[in-house]
Design goal:
Blueprint: H1 4-14, H2 20-28, E1 33-37, E2 45-48, E3 55-56, E4 63-67, H3 68-71
Amino acid sequence: MASDRELLLELTDSEGYDDPLDMLEVATFDSVAPAICTNEGCGYTTNMEPDQDRGWCEICGTNTVKSCLILAGII
């Protein structure tokens, strides 16, 4: 399984940011945050609540989506 750091970097890239800190700064002050499925090989991304650590994955059908703020250990 990919590490939280690897998932955070993948999410940063998919959201069009060059630096994870830029994405985290924006997410900190918004009501939604970029999130990614933690299942190996899935890569599903969406926007969820900033404190989401068990969001629903539309692809896998499991509660495995985490927000970038959770992946970074901010929340």
